[in-house]
Design a protein that fits this description.
This is Threonine synthase. Belongs to the threonine synthase family. Helix 11 links the parallel strand 10 and strand 11. Helix 10 crosses helix 11 and helix 15 crosses helix 16. The chain is built from 19 helices and 14 strands. Helices cover 45% and strands 17% of the residues. The structure holds pyridoxal-5'-phosphate. Pyridoxal-5'-phosphate binds next to helix 11.
Length: 435
């Protein structure tokens, strides 16, 4: 597999280089040089395959011989070791639950696959790989639990004090082993600035082999295509033909993977992006002007993104043709008030407790259905378990949540956390003194 930069199509790097650098230096994003189209017979017979079979088929089409088949199979068996079930709420509407991994969010797919690919490419005798991550909640948990115990790697997670939920903090701080949690007396932006400063610090980079677990890493995008194929396989087994996917979107990595799957030959009728009031993409689809804004805080805080970094990938996939994108992607925006009503409606009507991100997808799927009648299965993606967002959920609905056994077990474990101020020199000396 070779990749180019969306800012320079003449550039070519290997899969391994794209994984370790995350971003080309020209500020673009890596894209596969060739988007392989899967054998139609594979799609026709897709209901015969397991999630892991599908993942292997799709990943090997993309990655080619950069990872030999037996090794890729082993990586997938370890990384994708949990299900992503499609559940019908009524005759037309289904939810694809992506929260059955260790951090109870869809980011487990990306983080677990990426961690094992990085471990695989880190040869014996290489210097320890130091992964630095700033998190507002969901990314950190997926990365921590994804890298936990992966040989040759160490993860340092920075999170803002008092701004992550209890389950999220348990996931960040109870791991030990190769995972370290730093509670920063500041905001998420402060955490991000500390991490960015470290990446640009030459003396630090001489001492440590630093890498980011950035959400735009190509090794996070690839495994997110798997569950679109797997959902389609499940729907076909249940007799559905046409499918519309609705994706709660912030940085547009999740829906970007869906659109990559579509370009690889997955027969999807349409994609719908649901956003909170951070509506840069919906405005762009409407008026053709890409005008990012600073992000605004909402209930669906994993989608508080003012300038979605994966959007350039989607434009690249469609050759910068806005009308071609509009033919496949619609989008709708919801306020916190509407999101709350959506969560209440799901609970009242279906006895389904959803996180706020999922509720936005539910609302967007409903809106699309209202505007486009027809005989198709409407599948919205549930990106996180509701137990991670207690403040967004009514007390009554929260009572009805069945806490995953793993969440209960984590709460019993001791938290191991170091506290730092928003002070780069302090952060740097922590890293150097704890080499
Ligand atoms: C990260 C996240 C999203 C947004 O996904 P993108 O790929 O950034 O669009 C949605 N919901 C939850 C729960 C998340 O953690």
């Amino acid at each position: 597999m070779k990749l180019y930069s969306t800012n320079n199509k003449d550039l070519r790097v290997s899969f391994q280089d794209a994984v370790f650098t995350s971003l080309p230096q020209d500020g673009g994003l890596y894209m596969p040089e060739v988007i392989p189209v899967l054998d139609p017979a594979f799609i026709r017979n897709i209901q015969q395959y397991s999630l892991q079979d599908i993942a292997f088929h799709v990943a090997s089409a993309l990655i080619g011989d950069d990872i030999p088949a037996a090794d890729l199979k082993a990586i997938i068996a370890e990384a994708i070791n949990f299900d992503a079930p499609v559940k019908f709420l009524d005759a037309e509407q289904a939810v694809l639950e992506l929260f059955h991994g260790p951090s109870f969010a869809f980011k487990d797919f990306g983080a677990r696959f990426m961690s094992r690919v990085m471990g695989y490419f880190s040869k014996q005798g290489d210097q320890l790989l130091d992964v630095l991550v700033a998190t507002s909640g969901d990314t950190g948990g997926a990365v921590a639990l994804g890298f936990l115990g992966v040989e040759g790697t160490r993860v340092t997670i920075l999170y803002p004090k008092g701004k992550v939920s209890k389950v999220q903090e348990d996931q960040l701080t109870t791991n030990g082993k190769n995972i370290r949690a730093l509670e920063v007396d500041g905001t998420f932006d402060d955490c991000q600035t500390l991490v960015k400063t470290a990446f640009n610090d030459e003396t630090l980079n001489k001492e440590l082999r630093l890498t980011s677990a950035n959400s735009i890493n190509i090794a996070r995008l690839i495994p997110q295509t798997f569950y679109y194929f797997w959902a389609y396989a499940q729907l076909r087994s249940q007799g559905a033909q046409d499918v519309v996917f609705t994706v709660p979107s912030g940085n547009f990595g999740n829906i970007g993977a869906g659109l990559l799957a579509y370009k690889m030959g997955l027969p999807v009728k349409h994609f719908v992006a649901g956003t909170n009031i951070n509506d840069t993409v919906p405005r762009f689809l409407q008026n053709g002007k890409y005008a990012p804004k600073p992000s605004t805080q909402t209930l669906a805080n994993a989608m508080d993104v003012g300038n979605p970094s994966n959007w350039v990938r989607i434009q690249d996939l469609f050759g910068q043709d806005l009308d071609a994108i509009r033919a496949v992607v619609s989008s709708y925006t919801y306020t916190d008030e509407e999101t709350k009503l959506g969560m209440e409606e799901m609970y009242a009507r279906y006895n389904y407790v959803a996180c706020p991100h999922t509720a936005i997808a539910y609302l967007a799927a409903k809106q699309y259905r209202k505007e486009h009648e027809g005989n198709y299965a409407s599948v919205f993606l549930s990106t996180a378990h509701p137990c991670k967002f207690p403040d967004a959920i009514t007390a009554e609905a929260f009572q009805a949540i069945e806490l995953p056994a793993e969440a209960i077990a984590l709460a019993q474990k001791e938290r191991l956390v170091s506290k730092i101020d928003v002070d780069y020199d302090g952060f740097k000396s922590y890293l150097l003194m704890n080499k």
